[in-house]
Structure formats: C-alpha cells, structure tokens
Request: fold
Amino acid sequence: MARRRAISLPALDDAQTRFIAAWGQMGSTWGISRTMAEIHALLFISGSPLNTDQIMQRLSISRGNASMSLRALQEWGIVSRVHKRGDRKEYFEAEQDAWSMLRKVIRERLRREVHPVLASLFDIRDSTQLPASEARAPSSSPLAAAVAEHNRRLDSLLELVQTIDRLGERFVGSDGKGLRAAAMLLSKVS
Amino acid sequence: MARRRAISLPALDDAQTRFIAAWGQMGSTWGISRTMAEIHALLFISGSPLNTDQIMQRLSISRGNASMSLRALQEWGIVSRVHKRGDRKEYFEAEQDAWSMLRKVIRERLRREVHPVLASLFDIRDSTQLPASEARAPSSSPLAAAVAEHNRRLDSLLELVQTIDRLGERFVGSDGKGLRAAAMLLSKVS
DNA sequence: CCCAGCTTTCAAAATGTTCTGAAACCTCTA
DNA sequence: TAGAGGTTTCAGAACATTTTGAAAGCTGGG
Reply:
C-alpha cells in the first residue's frame, strides 16, 4: 500500500499558487482584472498582512500595478491597510469572512452597475409614456399600439432588474449572521 | 402651460436606440461583449424577428460580427432562429419572457464559470488534506498549524461558492411561474 | 530644511479583445 | 450541375485594457 506523503512546505506553497490562479481566472470572467483578483486571492489565502514588495515578488508584477490594484481592492472594501509597529512599510490584508466579502462586492456592484442601468431604463420608459388620455382609450392607431407593446417589454425588464436590485439590497443590508441563514433558507424554497 | 407632445415614430425609434445603448453598456460590465448585448437588446425591444441585414443596418456592424454574435446568443439560449415562409433569409428573435431569459443566463454562467471554479477549489483542498492521523491529534508542529489554517480558509470559500451554486441550480430548476414568486418571497426574508 | 525610504501617478508599451471584409462555403432551384 | 442568394469563417486591423518603469510626491527623523 502506498504511504501517504506528509504535507510539506512546498505543497502548501503550491496549493496557494493554484488557488491564486483559480481565483484570478474567475475574477477575469466576472469583469475584475486578473491581477486584482490574484492579489486578493494571495492576501486571502495567506491570512496575514503582506506589504507591497512581498506581493510584487510573489506574483511577479510591477510596483505600479500592485499599487493601483491594491487601491482598487480597497475601494471595493475587501482589502484594508494595516500599519505594523516599527515598520514604515504599508501592509495589506483581505477581509477574512467570505460572506462579508460577498456582501461588500454585491453592494459595490449594485451601486456601480445596477443602479445606473435602472436609472436609464426609467428614463427611457418615461420618454415614451403615452399621455394619459391616449393610454386610457384603447387606441386604434397602429403606432400607439406599437408604443404600448414597446412599453410593456420595457416594463417587464424594469421589473426584473428592480427585483434583483431589491433582493441585493436586502442581502447587503442584512447583518453578517443572518445573511448566510437567509441564503440557506432560500435554497430550500421550492 | 406647455402642451404634451404626442408620441411619434422617431420618438419610439429613439427610445429603442437608447435602450440598446444602455443594455450594451450593462452587458460589457458583466463580461458580455457590447455588440452581443446590443443585438440582444434590439431583438428584445423590437419584439419581432429580424434578419441579419436588418440587424447590421440598425447597429452599423459588419456581417461577420453579426453572424458570430448571433451564434453566441443562440448558444446562450436567449435568441433563436426563425424561418419565414417564402423568405430565404434567416430571422432571429429574442426570448421575450425576462424571467426565463435570466434563468437561461444563470444556467449558462453556472455551467461555464461556477462549476469549473468549484472543481478547482475541491481539487486544491484535496491536495493539502492532512492525513487523518495528523488531523485528529492537535498538532504541535507550526507547519501543520499553518496547513490547518489554510484549509480552514479554503473551506470557508468553498462553502460560499457551493451555496451560491445550489441557490443558482434551484433558481434555474424551478419552473417559469414559481420562479418569480420565489424571488419575491426571498425579498421578504429578513 | 533635507534626506531616506516608501508610495503614487501616468505616459507609453505590451497584451488582449472585438470587429471587419473578403473569401469559402452551403443549399436551394432551374 | 451551375449559379444565385444567403451564411460562416478567419486573418489581420482597430480598439480597449492592463502593465510597466521611471519620475514625482509624501512623510517622519535627524
């Protein structure tokens, strides 16, 4: 029977590297730059704060890139600066609670991407709102009918996006503990 | 008092154009190419099937681009081909039910993006699983402790991604009608 | 006030993605 | 089976994003 090999330092390092690659991959398919996701992965998986030089070395990236990506991660709220006594360097650490992390990401995506789209959709809908008089009477004009159909389609999409938005807001607003429970609960709704 | 201007054909056209732009914008922030999102928007908002030439004209894109984007949209399952009697051209139409559309998008994203990440994470976790003997006894070795921490972090992420996956699968699996109800219901869970 | 050590900025280079246009390819009909 | 009408493919061009590296900008101690 083959003996099970004991875990070694290189094996841990390798696992970290593979995790970083997988997370970076994922990030890039969800509209986050690969490097940003990799830095986040590195900070998350190592668990302790790292400074810019350590990050640069570990990921083979330039100082400028590291600096900009770290700033962006801080703007997302999932990485924060840490000062170490007696060290002039800045250290960075990742949010360690995965659910809290997700909450922050969703909060930002709502703010940056969903809300602007909602605003546009409302705006567009208003631009073809039929005057009340025309909307009330079943119109005989083909144009009015086309406009009505158009509005119906727009409204159905609006409703969808609004529901997603409300869902997200609720998720984001719930406190850390209740959050996971809510997700679990949903996963049982049939 | 200013008189309310009646809806005109140009106004409808303009609303369509604005919708197409907004939807294209959104697509690009969610990892879908702008053109693909725009074609989808055009088909969705016009409601009736269009052929390649009509799409090319309306969006000012090349035939090649239109063809490839239409193929991709069909692979996502949210656009389908339609034959028109007595017309040799192919026509395309978008799924008109917004919730069904969302369901299809989520199904594909789970398949293409979430499942591969899950597989990688499981794989990575397995590579540093402590032999049962070592894991059982509280270890004194600092290396073993580091590995244990690493595994803990990995597991917490795994659990998160798995929950999302299950949630998505359930959403995707539910039938059209129950779907929206479930989302509404979730939005009331506190 | 000046310097050392560190961080941030940003223009240009590298890289990656999307789009075009023309040629190859189907598939009906005569 | 020729060819008209239509669709797909794909190499290269256009465009967009990401990354680099060097210079400018901070900051705290001497």
Observations:
- The CA atoms of residues 106 and 168 of chain A lie 7 Å apart.
- The beta strands of chain A are 50-51, 79-83, 90-94.
- The radius of gyration of chain A is 24 Å.
